[in-house]
Amino acid sequence: MRLFFDYYRKITADYVPDMVVGAPPALQSHTDLMSIIRLLKDNSDKKRSELTAICFSNRSTDQMPMPTDQNRALDLALRVMTMVTCSLEARSADTLEAGLQPAPWAHDMTWPQFMSSVFPTTEYSGLEEGAATFHQINDRVTARRLSKVARLCFVPTNELSNHLKLNQKDGTVELFHHTSFLKEVLIASQVDAKSYISRRIAMEVLNSIQRTLFPSTADATILLRSLISKHNLDADCLRYEPSTYQVAGETSSGYRYLEQRLVELYEELDNPTPRGYLEKWLERKSGARYVMMVTLAGVAIAIILGALALAVSIFQAWVGWQQWKHPVAG
Question: Which pTM value belongs to this model?
Answer without folding.
Answer: 0.78
